[in-house]
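In the design runs reported in the main text, the only information available to the sequence generator was the tokenized backbone. The following block is the verbatim input for one such run; it is reproduced so that readers can re-run the procedure and compare outputs position by position.
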């Protein structure tokens, strides 16, 4: 992994969500998965430590 990308991911929380979950539950639901912890589901409004 590029060092710049690794440093970015350490400092910035990146979330991803399947489109089906977004359509079914909406973007405010706990359908988002932190890239660094993909087994966890969170709301986009949750405060996460980078």
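Verbatim output:
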């Amino acid at each position: 992994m590029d060092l710049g990308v690794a440093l970015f991911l350490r400092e910035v929380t990146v979330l991803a969500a399947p489109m089906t979950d977004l359509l079914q539950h909406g973007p405010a639901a706990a359908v988002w998965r932190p890239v660094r912890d993909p087994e966890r589901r969170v709301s986009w409004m949750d405060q996460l430590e980078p």
